Amino acid sequence: MQGNGIYQLIGLAIDAAIAFWVYTDAKKRPMNAILWAIGTFLVCIVFLPLYLILRKPVGAAPGTPGGQPQPLPLPPTYTPPPPTFTPPPAQPGSPPAALPKQGKFCPSCGAPHEGTVKFCPSCGASLS
Ligand SMILES: [Zn+2]
Question: Which of 17, 19, 71, 121 is 20 to 30 Å from the Cα of 33, by its Cα?
Fold first, then answer.
């Protein structure tokens, strides 16, 4: 039997070609491409028909019944909220609304205080 090896080789090449096709085809679908390719290569007669029956439509979500490819749902258009949030103006040591007219400001923390106190009522720094 001289030609037997050649035929085996040809069969192997066909198997490989089909497995390669299954691999590339399954990659476009939500399927395990490598698993199907290996299965097809090993037992082509079983896996190829199985693949053709079970293969999912391109782009369909897993679990969708096969057959008619359903129209792809539009991707959810996420629109970030407009940047309306404005941070409050930075006021270090925000002074109270009613500023003492003749008051001074603490050199340490910026809090206003009466000019008469010796220590800052806010941070306790010496004001003398
Ligand atoms: Zn202070």
Answer: 71
